[in-house]
Amino acid sequence: MTRETIADEDTSQDYRQALDKGYLPIREVARRTGVNPVTLRAWERRYGLIVPFRTPKGHRLYSAANVERIHAILAWLARGVSVGQVKTLLDHGELHQVSDNDNWVHLRHEILGCITQLNEHRLDDRFNSALALYPASTLAEQLLWPLLGDLRQRWQGQFAARAEQVFFLSWLRSKLATRIYYGNRQLGGAPLLLINLGDAPMEPGLWLCAWLASSSDCPVQVFDWPLPPNEMLIALEHIAPRAVLLYAENALDSSFVRRHLPRLAEQCPVPLLIAGPATHIHHEALTGLECAYDPLATHAWLLRQGLLDVQPCGN
User: Fold this and answer.
1) How far is 44 from 132, CA to CA, in rounded Å?
2) Among 43, 137, 243, 257, which is disulfide-ready with 49 (CB 3.0 to 4.6 Å)?
């Protein structure tokens, strides 16, 4: 038996012993916390936020304390704290007033500058840098959803608004759809079916909902254009999804809301959620139906229903 073979067997034995003691490989930690492996490695290398056990061959294994610390990190990020300040807060407590919302405002301002200049390369760089450090839920809450709100106001009567809108929404759809595509290739099981109820394609809230679900190891299928109610049932029969999400940004036809949606909910064989700001517009007519206002509320509903593989944080 060669020395290399002996070393491999020792490493395999160390790895199995660590797993027997309750340590978790990085992929399982990513599944449980919703933080992808690239981000976990960046938190370790760049900020020293987590120090996992390393096998002789360099495999990362995470203890229960590591996982608990990741949840604590997520709790701080959800409050708007930048990743660079989290370690001090975890190690020493909240000693200073946290003003990191300014960091997110600054990042949104930088990205807005990329949009006004129609600069795709710079926009990619700024987003990719943030994507390497923050989980999808934090980016949606602190960056993308507030940015979309700012852009909606900016694009009301603004000169060259249409060029900015087409540029950014095309980029966002392409960016999120690419990540969803590669996620779907690694996942099995019934997908979450998302259908746009509005007339406008490239609805960003719809794609944010899909991206958040995909980031939680849920396969997704997105219909970017609306379907007639009777064809929705045909789609359900063929796709056999785990759940259906109907997304609407703006007001819908009143007859569709009062007649077709309740009937569709009654006939749908899987959980059905109506999502988007239109749920506030039609809240009285939607009484008795499951609704969520934004992508984050949608993601929380999917978690509560047990439709995502990631385990919700207890904080």
Assistant:
1) 12
2) 43
